[in-house]
Amino acid sequence: MNRTRVVVADDHAVLREGLRILINSQPDMLVVAEAGTGPDAVERIRETSARVLCLDLSMPGWGATTTIERVHAVSPRTRVLVLTMHDDPAYVRTAITAGASGYILKTTPTATLLSAIRGVAAGNRVIDAPLSAILDEAPPVAPGGQAVLSRREREVLELLTRGHTHQEIADRLFVSVKTVETYRARVREKTGLKTRADFVRYGLDAGMLMPPDGAAPPEVEG
């Protein structure tokens, strides 16, 4: 039997090891490489031409969108299965629009994960069941994978991801603090982002900011 070749990409070594043991226990699939960063994941795919890449959404090096796009550039036949803790619709839509074939939560049962790997390997789109309803209700995204925001909403979002306070944003854009809060509320409604970490991660994945190597992402007001 030809086994489906899989690359596991996650910045936590313990999780990679667990996935490798689980996947290699199956007679029809085999982990052929592991990666701890986005660039490493692309290189492992380039080297192995694996059929499936199990990709953590929050990887060092590049945002998930860039990683997915570059994987397809070096190996068009590879199918990307995102494995993450993020259940916000903005992340799901961004990953799928970038070219991911599947999106599974890390809390999913192992049998469901294995089924998802087989599904994307067969050319199917697989989305964790709890997320399907979220996608049906979520706002649309633009072709680039981001929620459809006005110019001013995007400006406020970018400044928030860079750690500016509401007052600083108001001063910079020559508007009131209340207006900034209104724009932030609109961004939350359109993207599904809820916490300060969500805003920062969205900014990183969308390429709005890129912290220096080893630096912690900035925080925004809650």
TrEMBL record:
Stored Gene3D superfamilies: 3.40.50.2300
Molecular function in Gene Ontology: DNA binding
SMART domains (UniProt xref): HTH_LUXR, REC
Domain HTH luxR-type residues, every copy: 142-207
Protein origin, superkingdom: Bacteria
Modified residues (4-aspartylphosphate): 56
UniProt cross-references to CDD domains, sorted A to Z: LuxR_C_like, REC_NarL-like
GO annotation, biological process: phosphorelay signal transduction system; regulation of DNA-templated transcription
Membrane-spanning parts: none
Keyword entries, A-Z: DNA-binding, Phosphoprotein, Transcription, Transcription regulation
Domain Response regulatory: 5-121
InterPro entries (UniProt xref): CheY-like_superfamily (IPR011006), NreC/VraR/RcsB-like_REC (IPR058245), Sig_transdc_resp-reg_C-effctor (IPR016032), Sig_transdc_resp-reg_receiver (IPR001789), Tscrpt_reg_LuxR_C (IPR000792), WalR-like (IPR039420)
PANTHER family the record matches: TRANSCRIPTIONAL REGULATORY PROTEIN NARL-RELATED (PTHR43214:SF24), TWO-COMPONENT RESPONSE REGULATOR (PTHR43214)
Protein name (Swiss-Prot/TrEMBL): DNA-binding response regulator, LuxR family
UniProt lineage: Bacteria, Pseudomonadati, Planctomycetota, Planctomycetia, Gemmatales
